[in-house]
Design goal:
Blueprint: H1 10-15, E1 64-69, H2 81-87, E2 92-95, H3 103-109, E3 114-119, H4 135-142, E4 146-153, H5 156-164, E5 174-175, H6 198-208, H7 212-233, H8 243-256
Parallel strand pairs: 1-2, 1-4, 3-4, 3-5
Helix pairs in contact: 6-7, 7-8
């Protein structure tokens, strides 16, 4: 079972064997983003100029987030899925394989303790019978089961392919995210303001399912990431803590004296 807060080792996604055929995978070059020459913090992967580590705060939640991550996303420093693992202690990260599921994920999907939901839009009729709303999450809690939000971590095009090409998810209920939130993500240009990044999806789901404190911490942490990374692109150091930074530092102090 993978560590709850760590991404899979790089060589697993690059040189591992195909789980279905056993054949070696072709080598994949590491993703090179603009500014890949910048010296980055080993802890948060942000440029050291505006390291995120001083603002990390852990939070507990009744619901869990499991990320099914496209292999390319692991190498993108702008990926926000890792922020969820930084904050929520029970986050799990799995690499998406087209031919077969991660063995640990397959086992967890059969575990009766969990009530997993695939987070995906309800915009096609062929899976309409699987669509549920947020009330199903609250029902799972009442049944003493742990709600799990399975978020497909990739571009919209990748997420749709992952949804369609993952038969091991076909029996799971589909939970569309209903929200009026517009994205605040500044590091990639979305096709629409309604297209939230991975961290923002998790924030909204946590808030709607009753984990308001965890949602609030993750939201502040996302804002710090957003601001820190954006300023680092222009080699500008954030000298005065932002409002989100101050709130996270206050939470840290409260925990130290709690």
């Amino acid at each position: 079972m993978p560590d709850a807060t760590s991404l899979p080792p790089e060589h697993d996604a690059m040189t591992d064997r195909d789980p279905a055929t056993g054949h070696p995978r072709p080598p994949r070059r590491e993703f090179k983003a603009r500014g890949s020459f910048v010296k980055r913090c080993e802890g948060c992967n942000l440029p050291e100029l505006n390291c995120l580590c001083p603002y990390q705060v852990k939070a507990e939640s009744d619901a869990q987030v499991w990320l099914l991550t496209h292999s390319i996303e692991h190498y993108k420093p702008t990926n926000t899925g890792r922020l969820i693992g930084d904050v929520l202690t029970n986050t799990r990260v799995f690499t998406w394989y087209r031919t077969a599921p991660d063995e640990a994920l397959a086992a967890l999907l059969q575990d009766p303790r969990y009530a997993p939901f695939v987070i995906f839009p309800d915009d096609q009729p062929d899976y309409a019978d699987r669509v549920v709303d947020i009330d199903a999450v609250h029902t799972a809690k009442q049944q003493a089961r742990i709600p799990v939000f399975i978020i497909l971590d990739g571009t919209w095009r990748q997420a749709r392919r992952m949804f369609r090409k993952s038969p091991y998810l076909d029996a799971l209920p589909v939970l569309p995210l209903r929200t009026e939130r517009e994205t605040r993500y500044r590091l990639r240009k979305p096709a629409s303001k309604a297209h939230l990044c991975t961290a923002e999806v998790a924030i909204e789901l946590l808030c709607q399912s009753g984990d308001e404190t965890a949602a609030s911490v993750l939201d502040d942490y996302f804002d710090v990431f957003n601001d820190s990374y954006a300023e680092s692109r222009y080699y500008r150091k954030i000298e005065e803590p932002t409002a989100a930074m101050q709130r996270l530092l206050e939470r840290q102090r409260a925990e130290e004296h709690g």
